[in-house]
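Hi all, long-time lurker, first post. I run a small reading group and we've been trying to get comfortable going from sequence to structure in the token notation. Rather than ask abstract questions, I figured I'd post a concrete chain and ask someone more experienced to write out its structure so we can walk through it together at our next meeting. Sequence below, copied exactly:
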Amino acid sequence: VAMKTVNVHEAKTNFSSLLAKLEADSETIVICRNGEPVADLVPHQRATLTNLRPVWIRPCFWPTMAICKVF
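-- Answer (accepted) --
Happy to help. Here is the structure in token form:
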């Protein structure tokens, strides 16, 4: 996989074409400011059953007073 480097101004000006290049070539693009890398523009990877992680969701508790005030 090749890596192209662009500056922030070029990335902003040509964002649509950079996205098209990502879609066509799956190429990673490094965005730089003053010659220093600040961000990577990478192709999206869809979630599959093999790369999902378990997530803990904290239960939501309704305060009893709030429910009583509705009635």
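A couple of things your group might point at:
The chain has three helices and three strands.
The first strand starts at residue 3 and ends at 7.
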